[in-house]
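Teaching soon. Invent one.


***
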Amino acid sequence: MPDPNSRGRRRKLNATSYVVLGMLSHSPATSYDLKQWVANTIGNFWAFAHSQLYDEPARLVADGLVSETVEEGGRRKRTYEILPAGRDALSEWLSGTTTEQTEVRDLGLLKLFFANFGDRDDLLRLARDRHESHRSRADSYTEQRAELVDYADRWQVKTIELGIRYERCVEQFWADFVAELEEEQP
């Protein structure tokens, strides 16, 4: 039920709100289902605490955007389903402009920035580790793409294709950096 104290105002939805609405647009789900789906899909490019997927559906129920069905007996599992108002909110969000800068939180880049305070061996190990990490992730995305290309929608496939390109680009940066470091005299 919508919050009777909201007086017709809807709280400002956040990215997690839209993740939940988007996932529920595919089918009704429990919070556990949402956590699993996110981990295997958008979790590859949108990181957040999975505990939010347990709290946010209840807030969306209070907002009147999602309905909740509670299983009788047993664990009293809660299943959430998007309502027409939720589809409208998702559609409104999708139609809005997206001009925000992309956030990059890369521990390897942070360490590289402060590398003057470490030693050369640490820097070389960092470059090799990051190269291998991005190569491995790109390979994993390539395998995932092959598995989902026949059943995922076109736009979902596009997200993993960008993931592959991103990881290959960063992999190449670190490979070039490893080669640069190995050419230098210690």
Observations:
- The radius of gyration is 22 Å.
